[in-house]
């Protein structure tokens, strides 16, 4: 799993005083009218291939220029998007898909079934759900120019759900010649069939990225609903301006130089709320779960008792209020499947106690045979909220006699070091804080953070064969009742071996000018269609 929007926003959170707006931005704005929208995203877009990377900003780029076979509506139900109709054989093993009319690439050529086949195969190399489809598939092949089939070895009732999943990398359909590249090699051409065209001539990585309305795009006839339905474009041009300093971005928003600011700092929320021209809006209502990953390969956390100690030590309310002082945007989390998802549950959560239980944590470290080993906490100093939380965590560990040491670096340093499986004395690590979409955590076939298959798991490499056997059944249970029961069994085991620790949940509002309306609120992806800018 590569870094996502939550990681990229950390890199861009530079503290500083307000600066004058870049001259290039002033010049762009002077010539822009109501049909041009200026957005400051969570980071500069440097990788354009939304399959090669799982970053959310690349997924936003992908949603603009590419299209998908299926999309999720506002109730998170999959709906056909590029597909006109589909069906499944009586034995539930062969799915047939027919593309709708009017699909064309930005280079003027038609979208074909061969493009879809190649795109599914490439996506299937990297997405956990796609990997499951590829493992179950006997064949994925073109039937004619508008029809393709997926023939399975055994039924997979979640096939359509997996194809519509919003967890990056999403199943964006690319031209066959692009999708034939291995997923480990970046696609360099930004040619899709989506509602926006990438403006190559105006692309200035590090300064701005420009998208133009695709006048030849044929939207579906259904009303827009979540990411499904008709993708109606109401802006002629959307420009992603790069302003790394948050104070400068806020000044640009207040001055009307930009229309949308994705990551306003929490201490400036009141400034937005007091400005009659601005508005805070939560687009991703499920929010993000803050997670502590422990290195299960190195002492002391190769011992289950030490990992269990961390469950009892954490005071979620204190830690989250330190990260995000505005209490209306934070909450506690005790389910591995996120808060208030369809499969969230309270199984085996007796460890949770308001304020934590440091004495119990101290006892468990003793039972683990802890003998003063150094505990190295990777501390991303350019992610201000995590930096605060890491220092808090180190202080709490020291209070119960644990030899905690911070390893400060930028987020890039954390991303590099967390991949090391070496012992502490050779540059290894003990724990770090990250975050994952609350939406993604509802599906153990979509997020790598719910894997417990040892060396093949996500950073920290937890391993539990009993849990993995249950996770392997997720795709095959037939009813929602069965899936909820399975989730309870999985969670009961997870909180015993402690694959990770949940620190809480937050939602992150965006700030925009009130003249910008029609923003679609869904997890993971911020689409550029549907929004409309009124004249100031």
Keywords:
536 residues, alpha+beta, seven-stranded mixed sheet, six-stranded mixed sheet, 27% helix, 20% strand, disordered N terminus
Number of strands: 23
Content of β-strand: 15-25%
Q: What does the average pLDDT come to? A: 91
Uncertain residue ranges = 1-32
Main beta sheet: 7 strands, mixed
Number of helices: 16
Shape: globular
What percentage of residues falls in helices of 4 or more residues?
25-40%
End-to-end separation: 42 Å
Describe the protein.
The chain is α+β, with helices and mostly antiparallel strands and 536 residues long. The chain has 16 helices and 23 strands. It has helices at 5-12, 23-30, 56-65, 113-123, 128-136, 159-164, 176-179, 246-254, 269-273, 304-313, 316-323, 358-367, 384-399, 411-417, 465-471, 480-497, and strands at 36-40, 67-68, 70-72, 78-80, 83-88, 94-99, 137-144, 147-152, 172-173, 196-198, 208-213, 237-241, 260-261, 278-281, 288-294, 330-331, 374-380, 403-409, 431-437, 501-506, 510-513, 516-517, 532-533. The strands form six sheets. Strands 10-11-12-1-13-21-14 form a seven-stranded mixed β-sheet. It is globular and about 65 Å long.
């Amino acid at each position: 799993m590569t870094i996502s929007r939550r990681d990229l926003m950390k890199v861009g959170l530079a503290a500083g005083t307000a600066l004058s707006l870049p001259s290039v931005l002033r010049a762009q704005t002077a010539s822009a009218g109501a049909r041009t929208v200026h957005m400051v995203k969570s980071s500069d877009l440097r990788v354009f291939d939304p399959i090669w990377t799982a970053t959310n900003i690349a997924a936003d780029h992908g949603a603009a220029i590419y299209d998908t076979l299926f999309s999720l509506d506002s109730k998170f139900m999959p709906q056909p998007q590029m597909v006109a109709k589909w069906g499944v054989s009586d034995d539930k093993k062969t799915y047939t898909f027919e593309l709708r009319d009017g699909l064309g690439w930005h280079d003027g050529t038609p979208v074909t079934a061969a493009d879809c086949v190649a795109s599914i195969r490439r996506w299937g190399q990297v997405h956990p759900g796609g990997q499951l489809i590829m493992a179950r598939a006997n064949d994925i092949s073109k039937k004619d120019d508008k029809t393709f089939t997926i023939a399975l070895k055994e039924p997979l009732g979640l096939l359509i759900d997996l194809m519509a999943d919003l967890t990056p990398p999403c199943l964006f359909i690319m031209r066959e010649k692009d999708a034939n590249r291995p997923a480990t090699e970046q696609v360099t051409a930004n040619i899709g069939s989506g509602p926006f065209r990438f403006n190559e001539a105006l692309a200035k990585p590090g300064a701005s990225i420009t998208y133009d309305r695709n006048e030849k795009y044929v939207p579906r006839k259904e009303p827009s609903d979540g990411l499904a339905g008709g993708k109606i474009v109401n802006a002629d041009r959307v420009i992603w301006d790069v302003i790394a300093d948050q104070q400068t971005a806020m000044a640009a928003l207040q001055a009307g130089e930009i229309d949308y600011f994705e990551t306003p700092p929490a201490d400036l929320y009141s400034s937005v709320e007091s400005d009659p021209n601005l508005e805070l809006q939560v687009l991703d209502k499920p929010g993000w779960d803050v997670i502590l990953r422990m290195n299960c390969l190195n002492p002391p956390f190769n011992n289950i008792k030490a990992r269990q100690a961390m469950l009892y030590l954490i005071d979620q309310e204190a830690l989250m209020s330190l990260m995000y002082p505005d209490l209306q945007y934070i909450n506690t989390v005790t389910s591995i499947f996120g808060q208030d998802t369809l499969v969230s549950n309270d199984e085996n959560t007796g460890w949770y106690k308001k304020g934590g239980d440091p004495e119990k944590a101290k006892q468990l470290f003793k039972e683990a045979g802890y003998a003063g080993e150094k505990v190295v906490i990777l501390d991303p100093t350019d992610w201000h909220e995590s930096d605060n939380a890491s220092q808090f965590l180190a202080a709490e560990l020291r209070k119960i006699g644990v030899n905690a040491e911070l390893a400060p670096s930028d987020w890039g340093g954390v991303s590099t070091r967390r991949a090391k499986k070496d012992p502490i004395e050779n540059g290894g690590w003990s724990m770090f804080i990250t975050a994952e979409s609350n939406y993604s955590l509802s599906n153990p076939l979509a997020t790598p953070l719910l894997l417990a298959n040892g060396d093949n798991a996500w950073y920290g490499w937890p391993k539990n064969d009993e849990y993995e056997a249950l996770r392997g059944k997720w795709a095959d249970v037939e009813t929602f009742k069965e899936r909820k029961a399975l989730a309870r069994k999985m969670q009961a085991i997870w909180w015993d071996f402690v694959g990770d620790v949940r620190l809480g949940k937050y939602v992150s509002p965006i700030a925009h000018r009130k003249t910008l309306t029609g923003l679609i609120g869904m997890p993971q992806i911020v689409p550029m269609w549907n929004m409309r800018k009124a004249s100031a």
